[in-house]
């Protein structure tokens, strides 16, 4: 019996039958482009969420236990709570699975969540939770969903059930991605390419210590501003708009123009970054990361002064590129460093950040 089954057994006093794992991701470039039909380039992180499930034969309630919060909650319906707690992601997954499969038997389940993903740092802890839960339910009920459909359902949970206007990047890479490879995704067609990451370079995350939450941050506001830009441009997806087309239009609202400018230029940078990665030209790749951060900070206004300072220090310490990753307004920065210069970079950055702020990719 493995350690997870033992924990399950201790908590629920019965056997588990299925489990599934989903990893978190870091986005290397391509921010707020996914929900406008653009491009993204994330890769998987070692941090993961495991879901272990089994039938609850003792009574007619569902039970969920979060190892992180050390909290066990029982429930009898899939209605969202008003407080948006961790349980809602589990309930949301059960809701969408039962909604698509009305014939499923309704025996109750015990569900254990074990995760080492740092939360609220922009590395998609919520998507990993949804993907792992859906994968375990898919196994348990023997439904036969493929990984892409799992990703689509996970997005449905976060967007329609939880209420964050997010895109599909996190769920796709968490469900389909492979370690050691970047995941270039066309968010309109959901076609993807897996690209090798170079051996002599590494990516490193640094915690800006600014906790974030898409549900409460300006994430949804940015989403709405981009939808407004699409209305002004009379296009369905900003992702298909080129810079000339953007500049041909008169924007009375300069703010909306700036938001759109970030997305249009970011899409081009992401496609270029993919080509530099294929050629293993990491100097150019890093340069695009830096440009991406400037655009994210100045045009999209999704950074903070502290994050900007961290980015500047990382580049001054020898990183080839550094940018704020994820939904914005805090969380992790991601730096690209040539391995032979890593120690120098690390020791330099230790002057500004304590050891526990560094996270390996
Ligand atoms: C969050 C969302 C993603 C994406 C990023 C920003 O992580 O879940 O869909 O929009 O922000 O690039």
Shape, per Cα inertia axes: globular
Strand content: 15-25%
Determine the N-to-C terminus distance. Answer: 30 Å
Spans of at least 5 consecutive residues with low confidence = none
SS elements, strand count: 11
| Average pLDDT number | 94
What can be said about the biggest beta sheet? 7 strands, mixed
Give the helix proportion (percent range). 40-55%
Radius of gyration: 21 Å
**Could you spell the SSE succession in H and E letters?**
HEEEEHEHHHEEEHHHHHEEHE
Structural class: alpha+beta
Query: How many DSSP helices?
Result: 11
The small-molecule ligands in this entry are:
alpha-D-galactopyranose
Describe this protein's structure:
It is globular and about 60 Å long. It has helices at 3-12, 86-100, 125-140, 147-162, 169-176, 219-233, 243-248, 254-278, 282-298, 305-316, 342-349, and strands spanning 18-29, 39-55, 62-66, 71-75, 109-115, 181-186, 191-196, 201-207, 321-324, 332-338, 358-360. Helix 2 (86-100) packs across helix 3 (125-140), helix 2 (86-100) packs across helix 4 and helix 3 crosses helix 5. Strands 1, 2, 3, 4, 5, 6 and 7 form a 7-stranded mixed sheet that branches. It has a 4-stranded antiparallel sheet with strand order 9-10-8-11. The protein is built from 11 helices and 11 strands. A hairpin with a 7-residue loop joins strand 9 and strand 10 (332-338). The chain has 361 residues and is of the alpha+beta class. The site of alpha-D-galactopyranose (GLA) has 13 residues, from helix 5.
